[in-house]
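Schema walkthrough. Field components (list of strings):
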Amino acid sequence: MKTTLLCLALLAPWAAPAAAATPPQDQAPEITVGQILERMDRDNDGQVSFEEYRNAMIRHFHAADRNADGGLQSSEIPPEWVVLSAADLVDGRITLDVFSDELPAGFNAYDSNGDGRLDNAELNALATARAAKLETSP
Amino acid sequence: MTTARILIASLTIGIALSVAAPATFAATVTCESRSGGYNTCPVDTSGGVTLSRQLSSEGCWEGDSWGYDRNRIWVNNGCRAQFRVGQGQASSSNGNAAAAALAIGLIGAAIIAGSKDRNDRNDNYTPQGGGYPTNNGGGGNNWGGPRDTFECGSSNNSFTYCDNARVRGQVEVYRQLSNSRCVYGQSWGVDSGRVWVDRGCRAQFAVY
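Field assembly_structure (string):
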């Protein structure tokens, strides 16, 4: 488990004023299953398929890639991306290829019954894992 | 809709199994919808096709903006992706800790940035919008959410233009509301900035 708070640290210089102005809860609030479904559930079946997950995540990546060079350097990694693995950074960047290739494993980690969709319970587990991760973050 | 998806999944599995015996070939093909147009990439698809890497922020939705038949892959509405053709099964790892952490970081980020935008910019709501603000101000919307959403449906399976003003930007199905499939260029599309629907397609559309 090489997970670090790398991007948080990287962004500290310019993120600091915002952090000072708002309580920590606003920096990384909890998410709900309803919010995830609202954002991603394109076919309205109450679950998130890998295709739905992939499309949302890839769009998110491109939105952050301001200079459109196919990679995110530290200055482009949004402060909300609190959790990021150091293993994902190549020369200080995360490339679209690496990002893409991480998506199935990340999805599968929460697809407990392996049916290719995240149902209510599985999304709940993801939201809970996120909340727990944030709690253990400094 | 769910039934249809299960059916498609079953068919896909069926195809994969039927060709499992003769270990044929595996290749990666990149296929790109340029300027949002329809494009095809000739390739033998008898070994099955899976999307291995989506390259475009424009959506790649199977049956809507990409698909395949016997000897080609087709893409549309901006989808650009690498496709795995043939028997090379993607190494479907069951998830590692780093990827799992990435997932909880990113999935949360997408939601939270979205709701922040929503709360902070009520003045940018559009009348018929589904609740997502426009992003004219430059900068705030870093999560990739739509600039606008609107609902539109084909009544009596007939062709109709959506009654919103002409849209600028890329349009995608944000949430399909009909049982009839919304397939770009067939049951919905954009004609000189006017969105149309047909054949019973009803959806919440997003403008990016």
